[in-house]
Amino acid sequence: MTEQRDQQPSLEPMPTDWRRALAVVAHPDDLEYGCAAAVADWTDGGREVVYLLATRGEAGIDSVAPDACASLREAEQRASAAVVGVSAVEFLDHRDGVVEYGLGLRRDIAAAIRRHRPELVITLNHRDTWGGDQGGGYWNTPDHKAVGRATLDAAADAGNRWIFPELISEQGLEPWDGVRWVAVAGTSTPTHAADAGPGLERSVLSLLEHKAYIAALTDQDPEEYVRTFLTGNAERVAPRFGGRPAVAFEVFPR
Ligand SMILES: [Zn+2]
């Protein structure tokens, strides 16, 4: 195992010549588990990051019915975004757990890309598994796969005026062909990384804002659980990034 890991190629630093990013994920907490340390560092540097969530995560807590859960998780998501300098959090209101890949989802994401005009788009693992590049691994959820794939597609849809022409005629959303990279967090085949050190502490506080969700998830002390998880993830990337704890991304240039 160690030998295999040592042979993995080094990760390139994430691009830095951009001003605006749009992060598109399925659920509240996806960005906090995936890449909030990088987001904290980016917003500290004066960059603008907007969060777009396909659902409100209303099917995420077994003991809370969806109607009550949606507002609870929305509030937790807004609080966790604020901790890492993100004030704009939008929801597409697709149904949690049964998000369908398709034209509707692509159109909704393309519309958001046209509204916010990001150079960098972030999403979460669109592949079938977590960590399954050597075989095995954990099966990914249908929502993550659908939203990740639709986001990769929508980066191009946003730039073509003849795809979803109703975005122009009904919403006045002119094409935005300025997305230069789509960076996917949580894949087993990363190409790039961002230093997690400067933002790690705030990423812990950010994930901790998902209080009700974490309380339902584990009996462990919340801070211990969150710190162990996020620190472990960042340290696993370090051997491929000059020994520095980091957040890994698979970058698709455009
Ligand atoms: Zn999720």
UniProtKB/TrEMBL annotation:
SUPFAM superfamilies: LmbE-like. The keyword Zinc applies. Pfam families: PIG-L (PF02585). It comes from the Bacteria. Keywords: Zinc. InterPro entries: GlcNAc_PI_deacetylase-related (IPR003737), LmbE-like_dom_sf (IPR024078). This is PIG-L family deacetylase.
